[in-house]
Write a structure and sequence with these properties.
10 strands; Rossmann fold
Length: about 210
């Protein structure tokens, strides 16, 4: 269970949004809606890394473990940022397989090819990632986060670069795989179309502090 009680994010001591309280079980999705500049992305970043001048206020815990002030939840999470952040010297397949340390080559290739097929990139495993469109690059980033489902999956406007048809397909893949894996998912977006179409989704609208 991910538990947040009266949580906000402060930058230089100033809260960015009014405190929120929610509980999120395995396989569930919390969608945080709000206009640009409210601190949605900063909230996700603060869950996984310490940043000078930025602090989380309130109570945050995951499976009863309070958030570590230094390590945060980095070891338990995967994040899909607004930018794909791919390694240009690695193929698409190798970018996606980065988290599969210790797996056999056969098992690693099977897992990577499976998730690339699911997001519609099955024919591009050996391609140079920077030869792709922005939408394709984002799908690689999404595949990398899903290939080894994390305890905490953080999504920062992950579908904004995708066309309408691809967005629907990839959105369904993301939330179905997260549900089956029991990942706790936080999605930040300004579009309600990004949220899951299921009973597993909760929504909170952030408002300026």
């Amino acid at each position: 269970m991910l538990r947040c009680v009266d949580v906000s994010v402060k930058r230089d001591g100033v809260p960015l949004f009014r405190p929120v309280t929610f509980e999120l079980g395995p396989g569930q999705v919390m969608t945080l809606l709000g206009a640009s500049g409210l601190g949605k992305s900063t909230f996700l970043h603060a869950l996984v890394m310490a940043e000078p001048g930025v602090e989380i206020s309130g109570e945050v815990s995951l499976d009863g473990r309070p958030i570590d002030p230094d390590a945060r939840f980095a070891s338990l999470s995967q994040t899909v940022f607004q930018d794909a952040l791919l390694f240009p010297h690695l193929s698409i397949r190798d970018n996606v397989g980065l988290s599969l340390h210790g797996w056999s080559r056969e098992k690693r290739l099977e897992a990577v090819d499976d998730i690339l097929d699911a997001v519609g990139l099955g024919t591009l495993q050996t391609s140079d990632p920077y030869a792709l469109s922005r939408g394709q690059m984002m799908r690689v980033s999404i595949a990398r986060a899903l290939v080894r489902p994390p305890t905490l999956l953080l999504l920062d406007e992950p579908f904004s670069a995708l066309d309408a048809n691809t967005r629907d397909t990839v959105r369904d893949v993301v939330f179905e795989r997260a549900r089956l894996a029991g990942s706790h998912v936080i999605l930040v977006t300004h579009s309600e179309d990004d949220r899951p179409i299921s009973d597993s989704g909760q929504v909170l609208c952030l408002t300026r502090s």
